[in-house]
Amino acid sequence: MNKNLLFLFLALTTAVASCKKDNTIEDAANKKISDIVVPASFAWQTSRDINFSIGISDTRFQNRLHVVAIYLSDPAKGGVPVSKGAASLISPFNTKISIPSTINEAYIVKIAPDGSTSTEKVALTSAKVSIALSSTSTASLVSGLSLNAQMADTNGEPNCSLTTTPSNGANLDIANSSTVLCLTPTSDVTINLNANNGGTLKINAPGKTVTFGNFNHTNLKIYIASNTTVKFNNDLNLSSTEVIVNNGTLNGNNLNSAGSLINNSTATFTGGNFNINNGGTITNAGTFTATGGTANFNGVFTNTHFATFNNVTVNSTGGINNYCRFTVTSDLTVNKTINNYKLFTVGGNTHINSDSNPLINLINGAMFLTKNMDVMDGNVSGSGSPVSLFKVTGSIGDNVLNNNGYFKGTVQFCGTKDIEVNQNNKKHFSDGATKGCGTYIENDGSCNNIGNGTAPAPVKPDTDGDGIIDEQDAYPTDPTKAFNSYSVNYANGGSTVAFEDSWPLKGDYDLNDVVLTYKFLVATSAQNKVVTVQAEWRLLATGGNFRNGAGIQFNLPASSITNFTASNALAPEAGQDSLVVILFKDSREQQATWNTRVGEAVSPSKTFTFSFNVTNGPTLESFGLSSYNPFIWNNTTGYGRGYEAHLYGKYPTKLADITLFGTGDDSSLTGKYYATSNKLPWAIELPVSQFLYPIEKSAVTSTYLKFSDWASSGGTTSLDWFTNTATGYRNNSFIYGAN
After folding, report:
1. What is d(CA 102, CA 366) in angstroms, rounded to the nearest whole number?
2. Residue-wise pLDDT tens digits, 664-708
3. Cβ pair 33, 15 in contact under 8 A
4. Cα–Cα distance between 167 and 153 in angstroms, integer?
């Protein structure tokens, strides 16, 4: 069947069964899946992503690395770690793990450089767990976002109410505050926008540049997708109610903002005026650069990655929170608080004016490095452990000796002039602050790429010198790798992904058209960067006549992959920007029989393995431990590579046929990808390797009797619908292999 015939077929019928099967058999006593009404936020997940941030408060070893291991069952009773990494007093171990919804607690073990351990049990009641581990088992809970709050943040972008592919020179209007306009240009374009009535603008143009000429707006929210470049020719002015969330590349000239700018990727401003106005905020988790004149901070700038400015003045209503690397290439004037947790550098002069509170706070081994300092009327305070460092490499003005500012707390001052000469009874050190240049601060190669002093000798042997003691290093002679982390249920075979193969049409929801299991091992460095990925996939069932292919997309650039090795002649798919691995192209060539029909001969399962290295790999936190993005496609004659089906809400690959979205039963253009109008999926993932899928023609609702309850509740009840064998949970006569 070719595409024209397919669409003719769609026009003639509204109910087509998948896999060329008979009509769906439904249990009249159980709700049909098409009748299930699910909450708007439900994503058909039997697991949820939890972000862990594990800090260290054990001060016995200064900045040396401790090992952190996360368990989903008690390690004292044979539990094995699922994620492992390194943390220090100044760098937490951050990781993201897909954890079954039925698991409500985790165990976190810290191993110190001397081999001593401490263990904490934490409740998984939130989507983020953040704790600091001491030398004994008394962790302090630092923060935890509620799961609902985290879900709201993750799914914060509204669905499109209008989608357009603008041509060059187009004039666009956002009608009102409820309009969500989605721009999806397929080439570089310059457009003019009028949004004076508010609303939301979402821009998704992979590999393309969208330039704004005239840009009139009020109460506007802008979302820039990854791999999309947006350029503003004129000044970018944001009012207090306006928001920009950038996940791509943002290029601007001048900025005047009382609103909120969130940069998760790359933002560059080249104009001479850069102003964060009172009440305005900028949050940078990517690379933020302003190369013009002086940046005036009357609002707050929070930096968790790399930020670079020419000149900076922090005014009385402003502030800076720096958690990674903040660079001022010329001069810094401080009138209000800077909180520095990592590295703050000034290439020119630092001028610290008077304030009743400390103007520069150095926390937990932070480092402030300036070439010159001419005024110090405000205080510099050190807190936490280890000792922080304030260092001047050039000139120190004579005024500093007579100024009222001083150093206090756990901070060391290293300068080219002795400022403690007691002129006019001025004291410049108190509460434990010291003079000297010997304090050790690690050059971690990332946030602090400078460091200071000499590292203390290791307590236990570390053969490869990566900072991880041999007994905790999975690769003790390889300095590029240190830890192994595992996808959930790895030791017991991994997890299952079950597909319906009739996209963009709804299927019969027996969830057996393609059934795969997977498990991943991810090797990381002492810096918690992904180095190697090992995968094993198994094909269990191919319930239908369609000749389906299957693959996995990873959130990794294809160009970063080296040393790809695999069974079955597997290879990265050509023509993709990200890494896509194809397992097979024709399911019928893999299994002669379906493994879904009772009485039919059973085809053996088919195993596919592959591994690869990653150059300049992402952090384990950003890569995560999950299934990533598995998909199938209908490779039957008349269909082809573009007919991809993914898990609910997952993005298509570059080779998907986007013209199919919004056809048949697919509603991707107005909601989440790969969802019907009433939010039904084409695939589901389960954190077990032995999912007993339904026999041919038996819907999952007729087979698993609590499935409807689970879905209708948004995944809050009957969480174990697929594993519980108690009466009322399943109809064994509809389960393949149950009898």
Report:
1. 40
2. 999 998 889 999 999 999 999 999 999 999 999 999 999 999 999
3. no
4. 32
